[in-house]
């Protein structure tokens, strides 16, 4: 409970604390001509010397270790890791360095240059895919004999696509779900079916819980935060092509706004900002609710939340019925191959190695951000954790763990099929959080706010 919503605000700072101290390396790569073929190309034999460049803003120890291991196994391949300083004396300097990195990468990639491999997490992926500057990895995943689907969470790779193509492979991912007090919910006798429930279904269930139970609230969040989450989670369904332009669906956005307000008006939603006095009162953990919004991005995160609630339970987040069953996920550490790389085959080989390096993945901390896309590595981590019988948090707190506690997590991760993704260039969450305050405070109508957000999003989508 204590870690829930406000972690989102702090993620960039947490990331910088976990990143490498390596300085920027400048490398000029002479690319091949732009190519529309999707099979990786290479003009050299497997034993010829190859120098790969790999650019990443957040350079983890896991990636550095895996790259060194790859080089030792492939003496003819040299991998130059290009990174920058993801930290500074204050937040302004950090943001300035990040902006400089993004600008430099954009200039190189859009000019048909840039590294052979690049991490996309803070880069405008849509700008690159729209101009065919990234290799579509979908056919490689399907047809490469060396690619072992059974070792991966294919539910993630099958659904982390843009415009029908897989233009980057996430090395890690997290789960967006609800966590709740299963014992308290069970005591009410209310039937819970989260297999494919919508927010309308959730509200009806919440009313039963409110009538039969004695918790302080059914669900708590912040109205504006919840709206921004719903929008990013369903962004792909909210943007349609009309007359050659992308158009944001303000009708669906409007329905989200009204539904959230209805939840608070009917006592289903406890707004931690307006009802709870803000962050300070929330952090005390005095409020008992049946459900809360949770981003599960590590074993520590999951086990810690479960230990607070007493009886760990994961529930699929409600979503529009037309989306189909399954949960939401967020991708992390997404690596792509430059379509103009002269060493596409070698780059693909390295990318597969980063995914398959089970030892490096499994030996990594159980508190790092994101679960490995390699399912065997995940299973090994879970096995080691269950055998140890405890997890030591970053704060050196020991929490008891057992296999029965971890099994529901694997099942829920395996059924996550809805990608929580919106273009970074929109800064969607911050914009919606800011603009929606005018509606939830009664200063503007829902229609006025929805139209304003639609106009802003449409302009940015079609720039």
Structure report:
This protein is of the alpha/beta class and 463 residues long. The protein has 2 domains: 7-172 and 331-362, Periplasmic binding protein-like II (D-Maltodextrin-Binding Protein, domain 2); 175-327 and 421-461, Periplasmic binding protein-like II (D-Maltodextrin-Binding Protein, domain 2, 3-Layer(aba) Sandwich). 44% of the residues lie in helices and 16% in strands. The protein is built from 19 helices and 15 strands. The strands form 3 sheets. Strands 1, 2, 3, 4, 5, 8, 9, 10, 11, 12 and 15 form an 11-stranded mixed beta sheet that branches. Strands 6-7 form a two-stranded antiparallel sheet. A hairpin with a 2-residue loop joins β6 and β7. α9 (223-233) packs antiparallel against α11. The radius of gyration is 23 Å and the shape is globular. The protein starts with 6 loop residues before the first helix and ends with a helix. Mean pLDDT is 83; it is low at 1-38 and 278-284.
Main attributes of the structure:
463 residues, 44% helix, 2 domains, 16% strand, D-Maltodextrin-Binding Protein, domain 2, two-stranded antiparallel sheet, disordered N terminus, alpha/beta, 11-stranded mixed beta sheet
């Amino acid at each position: 409970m204590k870690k829930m919503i406000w972690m989102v605000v702090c993620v960039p700072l947490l990331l910088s604390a976990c990143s490498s101290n390596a300085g920027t390396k400048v490398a000029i790569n002479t690319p091949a001509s732009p190519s529309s073929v999707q099979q990786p190309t290479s003009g050299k034999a497997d034993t010829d010397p190859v120098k790969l460049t790999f650019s990443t803003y957040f350079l983890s120890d896991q990636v550095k270790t895996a790259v060194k291991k790859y080089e030792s196994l492939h003496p003819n391949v040299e991998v130059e890791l290009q990174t920058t300083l993801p930290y500074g004396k204050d937040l302004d300097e950090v943001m300035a360095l990040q902006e400089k990195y993004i600008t430099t990468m954009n200039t190189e990639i859009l000019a048909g240059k840039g590294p052979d491999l690049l991490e996309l997490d803070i880069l405008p992926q849509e700008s690159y895919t729209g101009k065919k500057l990234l290799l579509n990895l979908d056919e490689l995943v399907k047809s490469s004999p060396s690619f072992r689907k059974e070792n991966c969470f294919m539910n993630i790779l099958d659904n982390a696509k843009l415009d029908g193509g897989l233009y980057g492979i996430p090395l890690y991912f997290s789960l967006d779900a609800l966590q709740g007090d299963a014992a308290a919910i069970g005591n009410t006798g209310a039937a819970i079916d989260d297999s494919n429930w919508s927010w309308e279904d959730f509200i009806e269930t919440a009313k039963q819980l409110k009538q039969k139970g004695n918790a302080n609230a059914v669900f708590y969040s912040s109205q504006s935060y919840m709206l921004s989450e719903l929008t990013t989670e369903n962004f792909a369904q909210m943007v349609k092509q009309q007359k050659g332009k992308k158009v944001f669906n303000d009708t669906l956005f409007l329905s989200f706004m009204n539904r959230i307000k209805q939840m608070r008006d009917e006592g289903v939603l406890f707004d931690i900002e307006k009802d709870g006095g803000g962050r300070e009162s929330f952090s005390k953990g005095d409020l008992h609710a049946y459900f809360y919004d949770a981003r599960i991005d590590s074993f520590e995160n999951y086990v810690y939340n479960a230990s607070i609630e007493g009886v760990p339970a994961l529930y699929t987040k409600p979503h529009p019925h037309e989306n189909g069953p399954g949960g939401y996920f967020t991708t992390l550490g997404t690596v792509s191959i430059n379509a103009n790389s002269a060493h596409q085959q070698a780059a693909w080989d390295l990318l597969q190695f980063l995914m398959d390096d089970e030892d490096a993945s499994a030996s990594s901390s159980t508190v790092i951000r994101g679960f490995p896309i390699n399912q065997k590595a995940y299973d090994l981590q879970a096995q080691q954790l269950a055998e140890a019988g405890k997890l030591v948090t970053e704060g050196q707190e020991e929490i008891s763990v057992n296999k029965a506690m971890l099994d529901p997590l694997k099942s829920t991760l395996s059924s996550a099929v809805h990608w929580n993704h919106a273009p970074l260039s929109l800064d969607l969450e911050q914009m919606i959080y800011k603009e929606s305050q005018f509606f939830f405070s009664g200063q503007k109508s829902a229609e006025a706010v929805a139209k304003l957000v639609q106009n802003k999003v449409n302009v940015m989508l079609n720039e």
